[in-house]
Write a structure and sequence with these properties.
Elements lengths: L1 E2 L13 E3 L1 H7 L6 H4 L7 E11 L5 E11 L1 H14 L5 E2 L3 E5 L2 E4 L2 E4 L12 H5 L11 E7 L6 E5 L6 E8 L2 E8 L8 H14 L1
Parallel strand pairs: 1-5, 3-10
Antiparallel strand pairs: 2-4, 3-4, 6-7, 7-8, 9-12, 10-11, 11-12
């Protein structure tokens, strides 16, 4: 397994929220063995919540019962990597994928031949393109940060007003929150960083 970053799990690119297993079964009733898949050590859980507030463009709040956990995603990724190593994987950091041809992956580590190559490099996957697959046509980029302070133990999702053409969130953690905004690039008139800066200020004041 190669990762172009120098540290696994950082910077965090995730809202870090994970629904409880019973909620996952309610959304995906044909799923199997989710207890094993989503078994998370307690030390990796930053906080828990029992509700999600959905806030409409007109600021109407829909208070929905929904149980979930906010992870320390930076530590969680390292935990997953540790499990992989214990299962026999070899991890190489600060190494990049260069291309794929005939079942051989070219990397800065050298050529790698494998029966199966997993491209875990996101929605704009270069691995997928080189394998002849198409990237998703609809893409909603997101910007997030870690905010300090005391936050209500309720996940909040905003649609429209605070995040024009998209959505914004506040996901509480033990000593702060994961705050972010996602948007449709076709509807965005400002730079993503500008929208995030103005949206995050509005969110953290609430």
């Amino acid at each position: 397994m190669i990762d172009r970053r120098k540290e696994i799990g950082y910077p965090v690119q995730c809202g870090e929220f994970l629904p409880n297993t019973d909620e996952m079964y309610s959304m995906f009733p044909k799923s199997m063995d989710l207890e094993e898949l989503f078994k998370i050590p307690n030390e990796l859980i930053s906080s828990t919540s029992g509700y999600v507030d959905l806030i409409s463009p007109k600021q109407k709040v829909y208070h929905c019962a929904f149980r979930g956990r906010t992870l320390d995603r930076r530590a969680f990724d390292k935990y997953l990597a540790k499990l992989a190593v214990e299962a026999g994987a070899r991890i190489e950091l600060n190494k990049s994928f260069l291309g794929l041809k005939g079942g051989v992956a070219r990397t800065t580590l050298g050529d790698v031949t494998a029966k199966v190559i997993v491209g875990a490099d996101g929605p704009n996957s270069r691995t997928a393109r080189d394998a002849g697959m198409k990237n998703p046509e609809a893409r909603y980029p997101a910007v997030t940060c870690q905010a300090e302070g005391e936050f209500e133990p309720v996940v909040k999702m905003y649609f429209g007003t605070i995040a024009p053409g998209g959505y914004a969130w506040i996901i509480p953690k033990r000593k702060g929150a994961n705050v972010g905004v996602g948007f449709n690039p076709e509807l965005l008139k400002e730079r993503p960083s500008e929208v995030f800066a103005s949206s995050s200020r509005s969110l953290t004041r609430r």
